[in-house]
């Protein structure tokens, strides 16, 4: 904790005081992108996108999961209310669902003996059942490949879940909302982008045209 306290002091004395006008301009919350990702400590959305405070509206949970739409007002409100608020109130223009390599959630979901000791985690990861079913149909030959396939399939499933929300689908169909699925490889630093039309992941590299 000592280092975290020292970090807070350094932020105020250096970062804040050196960019005081910028931080004062953040009194209004006007992000352009909803960034949904895992709680994994190795993922830093702002550093990964080279964005500044105020640009990303970040939602994090174990496994970067988006519960499918339900007419009920009960359920996983922490996630669903954040998505609703960012789109309906803050009017974000983009949504990125970002999964990653070496994902603990995508590995432990197959280990019921460990999940039995973590009932809250087990309940949450029940939302991965459609992903698990798709991966099992692929019949991966080992655990490592199974985890990797789960990480990729999970991103696709969460995009599907995201588009099950009427207020998301309507804006997406009207061209008012851009939706992306990213896969971040922690070891290589490379980010793959999922093409919703071609249904495949491709590396984000500098010699290709980028979206506006």
From TrEMBL:
InterPro entries: Beta_CA_cladeB (IPR045066), Carbonic_anhydrase (IPR001765), Carbonic_anhydrase_sf (IPR036874). It is an enzyme of class 4 (lyase). SUPFAM superfamilies: beta-carbonic anhydrase, cab. Keywords: Lyase, Metal-binding, Zinc. Its EC number is 4.2.1.1. It catalyses: hydrogencarbonate + H(+) = CO2 + H2O. This is carbonic anhydrase. It comes from Helicobacter muridarum.
